[in-house]
Structures are given as structure tokens and as C-alpha cells.
Design brief:
The chain has 17 helices and 14 strands. It is α/β, with parallel strands linked by helices. It folds into three domains: 149 residues, Rossmann fold; 122 residues, Rossmann fold; 100 residues, 3-Layer(aba) Sandwich (Rossmann fold), CATH 3.40.50. The chain has a six-stranded parallel β-sheet with strand order 1-12-11-10-13-14, sandwiched between helices. A four-stranded parallel β-sheet has the order 3-2-4-5. The protein has a four-stranded parallel β-sheet with strand order 7-6-8-9, sandwiched between helices.
Length: 427
Amino acid sequence: MTGCTDTPVLKERGQHEVFCGLTGIIWLHRKMQDAFFLVVGSRTCAHLLQSAAGVMIFAEPRFGTAILEEGDLAGLKDANEELDREVARLLERRPDIRQLFLVGSCPSEVIKLDLARAAERLSAEHAPNVRVLNYSGSGIETTFTQGEDACLAAMVPGLAATDAETLLLVGALPDVVEDQARDLLAAMGITSVQVLPGRRAAADPTVGPNTRYALLQPFLGDTAAALDARGATRIPAPFPFGEEGTTLWLRAVADAFGVDDATFARATDAPRARARKAVAAVAGTLRDKRVFFLPDSQLELPLARFLTRECGMQAVEVGTPFLHAQIMADELALLAEGPRIAEGQDVEKQLDRVRADRPDLTVCGLGLANPLEREGLTTKWAIELVFTPVHFYEQAGDLASLFARPIRRKALLAAGRGDAPVAVAAE
């Protein structure tokens, strides 16, 4: 299949409307149970985290902010001394911390502080109990999912070396979904499985020339490059969204480890059937509907493949913040010809195309959803697709439902107003 492999990519470089890479802390700090994320930046960045992660009020969070005041930004104070003092106070108060990430909210030249060097200095000072790493969550340089990519890429150089033959799963998933993946692999006889990131620092994986890795998230290009530099080998595959994507992802891993067809079928037949049934229960709402993806999370191509091939939708345009040709090769081959493929963002031009196309569903960021709803367009928040468990077989029906709900809601509202009789498929 070639699908959209040869489709010209519309490259747009203009105004952006996305969250910054700091947003990734909201799910990473839950996943990495003995890590702490210290954001070094302005009050604006502190307010973002407090607002976006405010639901964590009843749990002691593992993130905080070191706010740079005007004197710091003007270079009038020794910010390194202040940072060292704050880190020492934090580690004294939280002795459970084993990994400390210094997350820059702006490029180094803006905050007048080289956080990479600061991380090296502090890591040496607090070793061996605490490892201090650095990455950028700057919205100038990243979209919100790239925060996870930058975080994991920063971890790779410090991972212990190994010559053992292992499978490395790369990407942060909810623990219950990660366990499902491990169970499926174990049923195929693949038991030497590691995960990046580990739930605790002691569980961080090892890596070497006999490590094969499979990406769980499509936005981990820098992490993949860092693993390649360590000698690991990527297993090319579509991403495990929906029944088909999950099966192809598992098949690629199984082939890499020599799993025979009969063993693969025993491990996957039952969950595959459940996933197909769950998706079919929702697909009636989505079938023949037209969907437009504005660039937001880098999940757009795999999701468009799932919606068109398994739910019967028609993709009008699939925009993505960055299109990694190698990582997305399998997804592009599966996505049938027809939609425009766009990389990058120029908000006004893309909104003009949305208004001209009038799709049945527009997948976009929070900042664009309300204005489009006001214009009568039905929208889906892209960020919800990152925060909600959507990978592998048991979540396939839930993934379809996330797209069906706004369409069903619009139909129910229209029926309530008496605009037209509406038949709504059950989820």
C-alpha cells in the first residue's frame, strides 16, 4: 500500500495556537513516581501549571516553579546561586525525590541561565541519591506533547548500558494500559520488556546494541534519535490506536522477536474481537462524517488512520505540528489518498480552510474550539486525546467514543430544539 506516502505535504510556517511543552509535566509527574519537575521561568509559567494541573489539589504534586524576577532576567543577580539554594531546600524537604528535572520555560538566552550546566553541577553535588536532568518546555521551541519527547530524550544518555536482548517500550502510558501491553507481550512469550520512562528511577531501562524499541507515542522523534545513538534499533510500526493499529504494532514486535503465527493468534484473537465489537458499537455515529485535524499533538495521522479505516469517516485535512517521515511512514501508507496533509501551523489560513470545508468534526486546541463552535462547527479538544487512555485493544471503543460524543451532542441539541428528527446511534 502507498496510501498518502506520495501526497505532497503543505508546509505552513505562521502563527501558532498550541500549549507549550510544560504541559507534559501534568502526565509525566504522575507516571514517574519519585521524580520532581522544577520549572525555572516566569510567573506566567507558574500560573499555567497551577491552572492546568489544579485538579491535583488533593494530592501532593511532584512539580513546582522557581520564579525568575525582574532582577534575575536582567542579569543583576547570580541566578545559579539562587537555583542551587532552592534545589537544596527542595531535596531536604522531599527526600523521596530520585530524579529532579530542571525544566526551562524559555530558551537559555531569555532566562539568562544555562540549565544544562546547572543540571550537571547539581547532579554531581547530590549524587548518588538524586540525578538532576534538564530539558526545555519552552512554547517558543515546542508544542505541548514535545515536552515529553524532550524529557525522555534527556534521560537516554544516562541510561545504563547492556548487551542483553530486550524490548523497550518508549512513551508514557497510564499504568493500567502499560500493564495491558505487557500482558499481551507476555502471552506471546516476550517477557524481557522494559519501559521508558520507568515508574521509579530504579526501574529505568538499560539500553545497548541488542535493544529493540517500539514507540508508543508518535511525537517521540528526539527520543528515538537518542536511542539510535546508543545503538538501539527501532521496530517500525503503526501506532497502537484501535484494533487495526494495535494488531499491526503487536505484529511488528512479534516478527522482530520470532513469534509464530499460532502463538500470535492465541494471544490476540480474543482482545481483537472485543475491540472490533466496541468500535462497531460507536462507528454508526461516525460513518461518512467528514473530519478536519488542525495541528496540535502529533497524534493526528494515526488518529485519522483509525477514524477513516475503522470508523468509516472521511478525512478532509490532516494537519500535524511536525511530520517525522520515518516514524510516520507506516501511518501514511495506511491512510487512504484524499485528505490534504499539512505540517506546521498558520492559524488564519487553516481556519479559512475549515470554514470553506465545513467538516462534520474539527479536532483542534482549546483556544480554537469555542470560536468554531460559535460559528456552528462541531469540535473535539485535541488535548483530551493525550490525557485519556486510548492505546491498545481495551481502549479502542473509548477512543471512538471520544470522537462520537460531540457529534451525538450536536444531534441531541438539534433534536431538542426541534430542528430536525435525528437518529442517534448508541455508544
